[in-house]
Structure formats: C-alpha cells, structure tokens
C-alpha cells in the first residue's frame, strides 16, 4: 500500500507538471497517470489503495469544499440576489431532464433509469470548479458582480439536489419502489417527499456549518488550543471530515454543504482565523488534488467506452447545450449579467469529475439494467469535460469577464515575494543584507542584491560577494551589478523585477554635502512608488520604514 501511495504522489505530481509545461491543465496529466497506474493498464496500484479510493476521494472533496467556503463573499452573494440559488437548481435540473429524454431516445431506457443517468451527468465537479473560481477571484475576474461566488454556491447546491434524487431513484430501481412508513401507519412514496428532503438537508447543513464554525473559533482562536497554522488546519480538517462521515451515517443533512458553510461562516466570525486556515487548506489541496485525480483516472474503465462513444458524446452535448443552457438562461434572467458574462457559464459550469467518479459505478454494482452504459458515459464525461473545463475557465475569463479589485480578506492571493537589497562595499552592507534575509525568511521570498558600480573596487567586490553568499545562504537570491545613477538605477531594477520592497542603507550622520544635495535613500523614498525600508547605520535595531 505504501508503494502505491508513493507511485500516486510522484507520478501524479510529475505528470501534472508535464501537462502544465505542455500548456494543458495539470489534472489532465494526473488522470492519465491514474489510467497507466490503474488496473486498466499497468496494474501498479494495490488492491488496498483501490479499495480505499472512495474514502480518499471523500477527504479530497472535503478539502476543496472547505477551500470554497473560505473563499466565499457574503456581500457579493447578497448582491446577486436569487441568481446563486437559481444556479443551484435550474441548470442541473434542466440538464438531468434533457439527458433523461436523450437516454430514452438513444438507449431505450425507462424514465427512472434515464433520470438516474441525468443525475450522474448533471452534477458539477467541485474539484475542477472550486480551484478555478478561487483563482479567478484572486485575479479579480468577475468579482465586481460576484460571478465566481455565485458559481461556487450554485455548484454546491446543485450537487446536493442531484445526489438526493440519485439516492431515491436508486432505491426505487433496486427495490421496485421506495416506500416510507410515517408515524400513525401511513405510507408514502419517498419520491413525493423529495422537496421536503432537499429543504431539510440544505437547512440542517447550513445550521451545522454555523455551529461548527462557532466551535472552531472557540477552540482555535478564543481558547488557543493550537500553537500554529498547521495545527489549526489539522483540527479544522478533522472536524470537517467528521461532518461528512456523520452525514453518511445519519443522512438528514448534507455533509458537504455543511463543510462549505463552515468555511463561509468562519470568514464572518473570525477573519484572521479564516485567513490562516485558507493557507493551510491550500497546502492540503496540493496533496489531495494529486490523490483525487490519479484515483479518478484509475477508476475509468477504458474497455466499456468504445461501444457508447458516439452516442455518449451526443448525450453529453444534448445535456449541456440544450438542458444546461436553458437552465443558465433562466437562472440569470433579470440579473445584471451581460451576454458575455452569461456565455462564461458554458466553460465555467460544465466540468464533471468528482461526483461521476464516486457514483458512476453504483448502478452497475447494484445490478440495475443499463448500468454498464451508465458507467461508460460517466467515464466519458470525465475524460471530456474535466480537462476541457480546466482549460476553458482561465482561457475565456479574460475574454468574457471584467476585471475588478481583489479583496484579499476573502481569497488567498499567491504572489512570489521578491525583495531588492541595494548595497555598496561599505560596512553598512551586512546590515542591509541581514534585514533583507530576515524579511525573506518571514515571507518565503527571494532577494535581489543590487550593486550600482561607480568605480572599480575589486577587493570590495570580493568582500561583498562573500557577505551575500554567507548571509543569504538559505534564500534564493541573485547578485546584480549595474552602472548608472544610483537612485534611478535602483528604482528601474525594482520595477523590472517586480519587487515588493526596496531595502537600502543610510549612514547615521549626514555630511554637509548630503544636506545640500540629498542622500541616496532620500531620493529613492521621494521618487519610488514601492515601499522602501531604510536601515540606519548607527544601530542595527534602529530601523524605520518610509513609503
């Protein structure tokens, strides 16, 4: 089992990076790696790992939904009114009905089996949609109207609805009926209680999310049971996973919706805690993503795709271009979305992967007629729509959406931190380098050491290189030598390299010439649009920052 996990992590990571270098989504490489490692080709993965695939996928989906909740913006959702709610019900419902009609026509399914296939294909993939929407938010695309937030919320609600209908239809087809006995001896078909079940599952899921968020704030922020962000994330992930497990054992609420609601309420209750957890779950997702998509690839049965390839593609096209498009139109009717923003729903809201991998094989396992065809089309939907959606979202967002201001309190903004340390060959250089090293270690940043040469000073240059090598030994850095006017050269290099901050040294006692002409640090502070940290020479600890 351990060898299989090593194969999953290493092959999944490098296959994903290879796909990224070929300008394809990383998940494409991970899925392909899963196909080669799985029982269809290489049979490298052990039976224990394949048997644990559902549990591992559950953990991965929990991580991505918590990320989604921690990235939601209540103000943007309120601004959208009912659009997010309509996106949660109408596109999925319309697609499921369109797929049902297509399956009756092409496969001669009965209504219940056709709708079962519709529920599988209509579900949206959080593993594709959530990271993509959060990345759009971090870049500002569509944030003015809250479009990523509406899509995230709608995606979660639609999966709750379709999974409920799927479970009822499964019971109906497996047992011939799904009859519930109510208090007093009354019996009723479970299908008639579906609207009530949806309301109860959604309502209890949101309520438990709020309770869990309050619990996490009390334990992690108020009582201080943890000492760092890693422990915060470990506790939050364990409690979120417990919600999902309890929801399976006691299916009266949506566990996944409760997890997403937990992240949402954490932002409202304790924004600093939410920010720390956001970073922790970003790190967890780096591992969970590989496991999820490699196991997804391993679960795809290539041998059942051939017979249903063309008809399966037709079913997918009808479901998306007819059913889901109608749902998108009805969902955004009367909203302030432009035509281009409505068109963005086509690439952004169609990806299928996680749910299809989790439930696509269940009808076949339970002996339902047409189960093999259902599994084949579910696998086809993953192979077609997951890579297409992962590629299309970042490709079409700049073409169809407006870019707005990013709110760093609602989404993790990953930025490569680069600092510029401007030094000379004076005794002040080590102090500047030490401050640059200190800041770089705090932010896991890089340092550019810049020396603006005014005259040849070979011994000084050798000494300065030794100082840089010693002080920045554990930090990524570059050593640049340039000629020119010192303040202008420093600012130009800072702009060219996109640095976050400039660090310069200043002698404590200014000469009469400095008073008349102005020192180099003063000239940089007065002309730079970037933050400038000035290190005083008189005392290593006497520092101040000018902007």
Q: TL;DR of this structure?
A:
This protein is of the alpha/beta class and 547 residues long. It has helices at 2-21, 26-37, 47-51, 53-70, 74-80, 83-107, 111-122, 126-139, 147-175, 194-222, 229-249, 255-269, 271-299, 309-331, 339-343, 345-348, 354-359, 362-365, 371-400, 429-443, 458-471, 486-496, 512-517, 520-527; strands spanning 179-181, 187-189, 418-423, 446-453, 477-483, 501-506, 532-536, 543-546.
Helix share, percent: 55-70%
User: Mean pLDDT, nearest integer?
Assistant: 84
Strand content: 5-15%
- What class, by secondary structure content? alpha/beta
For the largest sheet, list the strands in their spatial order.
5-4-3-6-7-8
Which regions are unreliable across 5 or more consecutive residues at pLDDT < 50?
511-518, 539-547
Number of helices: 24
Number of strands: 8
Task: Write up this protein.
α2 (26-37) crosses α13, α4 packs parallel to α8 and α4 runs parallel beside α12. 66% of the residues lie in helices and 8% in strands. The protein contains 24 helices and 8 strands. The chain is elongated, with a radius of gyration of 28 Å. It has a 6-stranded mixed sheet with strand order 5-4-3-6-7-8, with helices on both faces. The protein has a two-stranded antiparallel sheet with strand order 1-2. It is of the alpha/beta class. It has helices spanning 2-21, 26-37, 47-51, 53-70, 74-80, 83-107, 111-122, 126-139, 147-175, 194-222, 229-249, 255-269, 271-299, 309-331, 339-343, 345-348, 354-359, 362-365, 371-400, 429-443, 458-471, 486-496, 512-517, 520-527, and strands at 179-181, 187-189, 418-423, 446-453, 477-483, 501-506, 532-536, 543-546. The longest helix has 30 residues, at 371-400.
